[in-house]
């Protein structure tokens, strides 16, 4: 990459112009983190001013028993493994009872493994059970990978599966399982789960049905930088077409306890790389309103720092998380609303409690 390319890309970034892949590669190679931070923060402030969002949510992982055996995964296990669990209606009822006592709980977030025998009716009844217990909470549930699994299991189309879930009470999809949308990469990190095309077409179908989603990326494993950046451009193209993504979330790969990490001797990315990717994603994804710094993945100190690199959302209180913790994350599994607000205020921003769709939930908060 010559200095002329870098100069041109920097000028575009300063002016907030749409970047192309060559610009993104030039900015990546330029490696001027504080320059990227300044440009990303300007774009963030043009979109959401001084507001930084968070919500009061509860994660539920229904099972870790999975047919897919992805090398990237530390969470899944086979049937019969003593670490395996499946939440049944009574277990879920206990979680929901506890959730009912949380003031203004706005969202239940459900993601799980691909259980070999649990029928689709089980997942529908979980959604109905949550809706009955918490009628005001939005249900953000099931990645496109899970939706494709339900479609394969039942022989129904993805569209039909999504419609049935929507009818049962589902409000949005979390958008996980995108990893890197490259078949070369997926063949190595997750060869048995939904392909890049299946992930993309499921997301487009959801958007067509009015089901909004997040867009995600898991980086820092065996992908090249060009593949990683191309992933962001693929998401931008989808958004140009559907306008259905509400937020983008990126996760550094946590290699501990994964066969992928062991085979390729991978280490978790450093904070420089994490902040660089956050700022670059803010600049590239000019058509996605919100960039989330997912504190459970980044650690809270780094998520707070991300607010200076273009992020405008810290996700929520979470309550409990099993997937990333299985891969060695050392973060807490929950955080209080007041701690989230304090983190945002310290960074010089205005905390705004939101619902799933980024509507402020309290009077007077903009
Ligand atoms: S990443 Fe998801 S689909 Fe793959 S093994 Fe883990 S739980 Fe199963």
Highlighted features:
TIM Barrel, 4-stranded parallel sheet, binds iron/sulfur cluster, 3-stranded parallel sheet, 366 residues, globular, alpha/beta
Number of helices: 16
What structural category do the secondary elements indicate? alpha/beta
Q: Please state how the strands of the largest beta sheet are arranged side by side.
A: 5-6-7-8
**Main beta sheet:** 4 strands, parallel
Question: CATH-wise, what's the superfamily?
Answer: Aldolase class I
Gyration radius, to the nearest Å?
20 Å
Shape: globular
- Give the SSE string: HHHEEHEHEHHEHHEHEHHEHHEHHE
Regarding quaternary structure, what we see is: single chain
What small molecules accompany the polymer chains? Answer: iron/sulfur cluster
CATH architecture: Alpha-Beta Barrel
Overall tally of structural domains: 1
The percent range for strand residues is 5-15%
Strand segment tally: 10
Q: Report the CATH C-level class.
A: Alpha Beta
Query: Which consecutive residue ranges, at least 5 long each, have pLDDT under 50?
Result: none
């Amino acid at each position: 990459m010559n200095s002329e390319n870098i100069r041109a890309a920097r000028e575009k970034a300063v002016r907030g112009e749409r970047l192309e892949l060559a610009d993104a590669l030039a900015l990546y190679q330029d490696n001027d983190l504080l320059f990227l931070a300044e440009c990303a923060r300007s774009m963030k402030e043009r979109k959401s001013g001084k507001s930084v969002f968070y919500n009061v949510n509860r994660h539920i992982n229904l099972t870790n028993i999975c047919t897919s055996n992805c090398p990237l995964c530390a969470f899944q296990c086979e049937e019969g493994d003593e670490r395996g669990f499946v939440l049944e209606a009574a277990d879920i009822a206990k979680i929901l009872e506890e959730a009912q006592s949380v003031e203004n709980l706005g969202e239940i977030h459900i993601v799980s493994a691909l259980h070999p025998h649990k029928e689709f009716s089980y997942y529908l009844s979980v959604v109905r059970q949550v809706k009955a217990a918490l009628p005001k909470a939005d249900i953000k549930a099931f990645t496109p990978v899970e939706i494709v699994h339900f479609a394969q299991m039942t022989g129904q189309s993805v569209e039909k599966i999504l419609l049935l879930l929507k009818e049962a009470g589902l409000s949005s999809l979390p958008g996980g399982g995108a990893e890197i949308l490259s078949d070369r990469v997926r063949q190595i990190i997750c060869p048995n789960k939904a392909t890049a095309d299946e992930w993309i077409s499921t997301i487009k179908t959801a958007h067509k049905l009015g089901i909004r989603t997040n867009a995600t990326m898991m980086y820092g494993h065996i992908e090249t930088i060009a593949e990683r950046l191309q992933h962001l451009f693929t998401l931008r193209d989808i958004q140009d077409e559907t306008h259905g993504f509400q937020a983008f979330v990126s996760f550094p790969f946590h290699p501990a306890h994964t066969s992928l990490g062991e085979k390729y001797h991978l280490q978790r990315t450093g904070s420089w790389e994490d902040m660089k990717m956050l700022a670059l994603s803010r600049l590239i994804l000019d058509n996605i309103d919100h960039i989330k710094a997912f504190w459970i993945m980044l650690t809270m100190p780094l998520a707070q720092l991300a607010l200076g690199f273009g992020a405008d959302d810290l996700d929520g209180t979470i309550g409990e998380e099993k997937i990333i913790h299985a891969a060695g994350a050392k973060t807490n599994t929950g955080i209080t609303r007041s701690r989230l607000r304090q983190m945002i205020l310290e960074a010089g921003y205005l905390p705004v409690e939101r619902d799933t769709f980024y509507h402020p939930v309290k009077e007077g908060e903009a």
